[in-house]
Specification:
Helix content is about 30%, strand content about 25%. By secondary structure, the chain is α/β, with parallel strands linked by helices. The chain has a single domain, classed as 3-Layer(aba) Sandwich (Rossmann fold), CATH 3.40.50. The strands form 2 sheets. An 8-stranded mixed beta sheet has the order 2-1-3-4-10-9-8-6, with helices on both faces. Helix 2 crosses helix 3. The radius of gyration is 17 Å and the shape is globular.
Length: about 240
């Protein structure tokens, strides 16, 4: 019998912030990938309960900028419905902030631009859960992930904090097995960051950040580690569904 393909629905805010190096992993895992460009799509026509997995990607806007970006309200409504049914949902950067907002948490400017490559400080739950491969081991230092945000969020009710940095305490959280929110980027490696730099040149200039520092990273997260993180999460999700 032919294996049934699972559907992944990716909510995309800008073209260059896509699934990146995770694309290969999801295809190998048997997902068909459908992108929805939220700025132009008819979000009211989307059934948020239909997809096997929803991934909410990053973007330059703030969750609170709903007057300028009215589609954010519709996106949050989709997430409220999906999360209410405890369906598998992954948020990356802006996606993590939208998930937090959908769960009733406050999202707001953090007062500091955190842009560049840096490792995470994992909590106990992070070290012993799906983010374990992003931590320091006895053999190697923790890999650096890409940070590119200036907003932050309060931890939603019932969430488990997984990671922090010196700049921002809330970098990743989970809800049971079905929800994972990452404010950083594991889907990006230095070799494919040029479109990000080009699109955000003014922001980098204003923040006084050199593009060279974004091209060079001593120990960046690899696609293999990124795949391990998502693979561990999906394995835990499958185990919970089978129980």
């Amino acid at each position: 019998m032919k294996k049934q393909t699972k559907k992944l629905l990716a909510l995309r805010h800008v073209q260059f912030e896509n699934l990146g190096t995770l694309t290969e992993f999801f295809l190998r895992a048997g997902f068909s990938i459908q992108y929805v460009d939220v700025a132009t799509a008819a979000l009211n026509d989307i059934d948020p309960l239909e997809a096997d997995l929803m991934v909410v990607l990053g973007g330059p806007m703030g969750v609170y900028e709903t007057e300028r970006y009215p589609f954010l309200r519709e996106e949050i409504e989709l997430l409220v419905r999906r999360i209410g049914k405890q369906l598998p949902t992954l948020g990356i950067c802006l996606g993590s902030q939208l998930i937090a907002a959908a769960m009733g948490a406050k999202v707001y400017p953090g007062g500091l631009k955190e842009i560049g490559w840096a490792p995470l400080e994992l909590t106990h739950a992070g070290r012993h859960g799906v983010l374990a491969s992003l931590g320091r081991t006895h053999a190697s230092a923790a890999p650096a992930v890409l940070h590119w945000h200036g907003d932050t969020f309060d931890l939603p009710p019932g969430a488990t904090l997984l990671a922090s940095t010196q700049a921002y305490a809330h970098q990743a959280f989970s809800i049971d097995n079905y929800l994972l929110a990452l404010q950083f980027h594991i889907e990006v490696v230095p070799g494919v960051i040029e479109p990000w730099i080009d699109a955000n040149a003014h922001e980098l200039l204003t923040a006084g950040i050199s593009a060279a520092t974004l091209h060079d990273c001593v120990n960046p997260v690899s696609p293999a580690i990124a795949h391990q993180v998502i693979g561990d999460w999906l394995a835990g999700l499958a185990g919970a569904q089978a129980a």
